[in-house]
Amino acid sequence: MGVDLSVEVLGLKFKNPLVLASGPAGFGFELQQYLDISKVGAITLKTVTLNPREGNAPPRLVDTHGGIINSIGLQNPGIEEFVNIIAPKLKEIRTIKIGSIAGFTIEEWKILGEKMDKIKDIKAIELDLSCPNVEGKKIWAKDEELTQEAIKAVRESTDKPIIAKLAPDVTDIVKVAKKAVNAGADALSLGNTIEAMRINIETGLPVLKLKTGGLSGPSIKPITLARVFRVAEALEIPIIGIGGVMNWQDALEYAMAGASLVGIGTAIMVNPQAPLEILQGIESFLRQKGVEKFEDIIGIAHRGGF
Amino acid sequence: MIEAELIEKRTAKDYGLFKFKLKEKLKDPDAGQFVMLKSPDEPILAKPFSIYSYKNRKLTLFIKRVGRLTGKVFSSPIGEVFYVRGPYGIPYIKKIDRDKKYILIGGGSGVAPLNFFSELYPELVYKKLYGFKGRYIRELFEEQSSLVIEEESGKTVVDVLREVYSEGLGVLACGPIPMLKTLPPGSYVSLESVMGCGIGTCKSCAVKTKEGIKMVCKDGPLFRKEEIQWEWI
């Protein structure tokens, strides 16, 4: 008998808990030549801003022990091109599509919410409140008041489910999460990359052109996992656990800590086929444990384990 | 990813030729394309390497030791297993004018894709100029006449290019940015970049062109010299 990997959350039925996290999967068009995207639960599309953005000058990426540091800088075609050219093609991507937006002002959040609201193929909207890679731009999620204002603005512009993507590197994640939920977020993505850098000791200069970037990969997993655990302990809110999931064991840890869905980012860059291997691993583990439904293990760490 | 077993290595100081036997074959690899090479553990990210040669599931890479992954390849014993995926990138042949003959200009590890090009399309090659600083590199190459060694002649490949170049010939080059920038107008330049995914989705290997931001992995690696906004790189 097969294991039921489906997850019902946000009024949507995800065929399994794996979500391609916003960023490395782009809008899915290139990736689908290398990965059957219909096999994953959902894709969160690359973040779109009001105006087109070229992104940062290179180098945009450097590796480090247990991870990578990127400073792409929200390269995207802007919301107009997204609505007119990208959105009509989204039906080619045969899984649940979650749109991702980032505003620079409250007014921008509102406009972006309205535009996304009108796209039929977008089933939920993620608010990228936490990208650390834009020079001069505030990181909304590092301030609970700003987090609240941004979510409120989008809440007024759409009835679609709203997912607030929070920063893991804050003093009190539960405090920010509570504000986000009170402002109208239907789910939380925890978290994002963590501000990091490397210096080239030969030149004495930062490796990345932007100087700093965001750390992702296995080294941040235990940190984000603790954030997921803390928030799940304090709040009744669906969580997408994102941070350093490289294999099925990592995905299970997030689920057990309280994540209903699990995001995959860096692992896609390393190996576009990674999600399929992770799904197989989850399924065979659950079968071995005699668990019939994936949903039964969500948050099991808070309920005395197996 | 495809299992790649190291079956042969020849090194000379910081350069080396490494032959891997792949468990599955690469799909129609062509000159100018690259593979993403991954160590079984650290570093976690796969890195792009141009194909130096490929035949019967045997892949040869020409590698300069620069960081953790290349360091690991250098120190690996025969039999060590790595992983590859690819080939990625647009083959040179799909971008260049096939009615011309080309001077191939390589600088350091930039020689790799040019070697594969000259193996596959010898009829399009007018001359090969492979530039290196030190004479120790001679140990690695059978075809000594293509080498331009600064330590021996005091000349760089760009100096020699000026002597042999004539109107009507094409230039196909891969090497360091300062070298590429000095090439004559109309040259085709193959860019190196830090990459994340190699397939166009992660947006790490950006290059600014006259038509906006492009990705070295998906839109390149070959570009016309004039397309590139060099000051941005």
Estimate what percentage of residues of chain A fall within beta strands.
Answer: 15-25%
Biggest sheet of chain A, strands in spatial order? 3-4-7-8-9-10-15-16
- The strand count of chain A comes to 16
Number of domains of chain B: 3
Q: State the CATH class of the largest domain in chain B.
A: Alpha Beta
> By CATH's scheme, which homologous superfamily of the largest domain in chain B applies?
Nucleotide-binding domain of ferredoxin-NADP reductase (FNR) module
Report the CATH topology name of chain A.
TIM Barrel
Summed up, the helix count of chain B is 6
Oligomer: heterodimer
The CATH architecture term of chain A is Alpha-Beta Barrel
For the largest beta-sheet of chain A, the strand count, sense and barrel status come to: 8 strands, parallel, barrel
Low-pLDDT stretches of chain B are none
Number of strands of chain B: 15
**Mean pLDDT over the full residue set of chain B:** 96
Encode the helix/strand succession of chain B as letters: EEEEEEHEEHEEHHEHEEEHE
Separation of the first and last Cα atoms of chain B? 31 Å
Write the layout of secondary structure elements.
The complex is a heterodimer of chains A (306) and B (233).
Chain A lengths: L6 E3 L2 E3 L3 E3 L21 E3 L16 E4 L2 E4 L8 H8 L9 E6 L4 H12 L4 E7 L15 H14 L4 E5 L6 H10 L4 E4 L3 E3 L2 E2 L4 E2 L6 E4 L4 H14 L4 E4 L5 H10 L3 E4 L1 H5 L3 H16 L17
Chain B lengths: L1 E11 L2 E8 L11 E5 L8 E4 L2 E3 L2 E7 L3 H8 L5 E8 L13 E6 L3 H10 L4 E8 L14 E3 H4 L3 H8 L5 E5 L2 H5 L6 E3 L15 E4 L2 E4 H4 L2 E3 L9
Parallel strand pairs in B: 8-9, 8-11, 9-10, 11-12
Antiparallel strand pairs in B: 1-2, 1-7, 2-6, 3-4, 3-7, 5-6, 12-15, 13-14
